[in-house]
Amino acid sequence: MKKKEMYLRSFQIGLQNSMEYRFNFILSIFSTIVPTITQLFLWNAMFESSATGRVYGYTYSSMIMYTILAGVVSKLMAAGCEWSVAADIRDGGLNKYIVKPIGYFRYQFCCFLGQKSVQSAVFTVILAIILVVAKANSFFSVAPVRLLYFAAAVVLGILINMFLGFMVSAVAFWITEAWSAFLILGLAINIASGGVFPLDIFGEKVVTVLKFLPFQYTVYFPINILNGNIVIGDIFPSLCIQVAWIVILAFMLQLLWKIGLRKYEAVGG
Q1: Containing domain of residue 197, as a range?
Q2: Integer Cα distance of 219 and 196 in angstroms
Q3: CA–CA distance, 149 with 16 (Å, rounded to integer)
Q4: Taking residues 74-100, what's their average pLDDT?
Q5: In degrees, to the nearest 5, what angle opens at C-alpha 240 toward C-alphas 159 and 208?
Q6: At a CB cut-off of 8 Å and minimum separation 6, what does 207 contact?
Q7: Pick from 1, 32, 165, 209: most CB atoms within 10 A?
Q8: For residue 59, what are the β-bridge partners?
Q9: Residues 6 or more apart in contact with residue 236 via CB below 8 angstroms
Q10: Residue 248's CB: how many other CB atoms inside 10 A?
Q11: Sorted alphabetically, which InterPro entries does this protein's record hold (predicted)?
């Protein structure tokens, strides 16, 4: 079988898995509703007690939209690949990929794309409904150029999160039962990305530090393109930073994976 056919087959496997586990996917969508509603009540209370009508620099409408969009975008960004990679490492499933002509990461990447193709279509519809309803109620309006920039930022953000997920999965080379580490790291990354709260609540110093890390470019940056917190002229340079982080993370992943494979092969895989 040619490599192109292998990659296509891998993509189809990811697509099939997404369809087979569609109930889990639907459940994950609904799992964002409760925490999002809880946050909406929280922000509503904070704005009612605000004398200026702003909280952390956000108006009521922009904060509500950020909260709703963060719930949707963070789900879209979720990689989830660390669980399957860790299972391959723990159970020895990685062995069959080491001897095959198709690279393991290329296989996982194609599966990831197949899985994300269905999810992206669903979330695109959800986002479209949110934006249309918000505009119809004069709550929120987005310029077409910002939608294009947002789409580009989301695609690049998904790739960043995918590489982060692969790097997190490498923990399984050293920890047999890595699920607790995944949960802790996943929560930390979600908070640092702005998927729980806007990063502005942590203060200017923390936001400045996070600008030098990849996390904010997965959720916080794309959403702020939509809500207008980033001026048009600053968007393209930030997209270039996203690309730079993809290259850096890919290099770091290769290095980390080589170190992990040495340990994996040393103990007999």
Answers
A1: 3-266
A2: 10
A3: 30
A4: 76
A5: 90
A6: 199, 200
A7: 165
A8: 54
A9: 149
A10: 13
A11: ABC-2_transporter-like
By the 8 A CB rule, do 72 and 127 touch?
yes
How far, in Å, are 26, 72, 107 from residue 31 at the CA level?
9, 11, 29
For the chain, percent of residues with pLDDT exceeding 90 = 20
Give the residue, 21 or 152, on which the prediction is more confident: 152
Give the residue-averaged pLDDT of 78-101.
Answer: 74
Whole-structure pTM value: 0.84
E strand intervals along the chain = 54-55, 58-59
Arithmetic mean of pLDDT, 175-192: 83
What is the DSSP annotation of 159-207? Answer: HHHHHHHHHHHGGGGT-SS-HHHHHHHHHHHHHHHTSSS-GGGG-HHHH
Give pLDDT, residue 103. Answer: 73
DSSP annotation of 32 reads T
- Alpha carbon distance 105, 90 (integer Å): 17
Give the count of domains, the chain.
Answer: 1
Q: Is the pLDDT of residue 11 over 90?
A: no
CA distance 72 to 136: 20
Mean pLDDT within 145-151 = 92
pLDDT at site 220: 95
Q: Tell me the torsion sign for CA atoms 63, 213, 106, 94.
A: negative
Cβ–Cβ under 8 Å, residues 172 and 90: yes
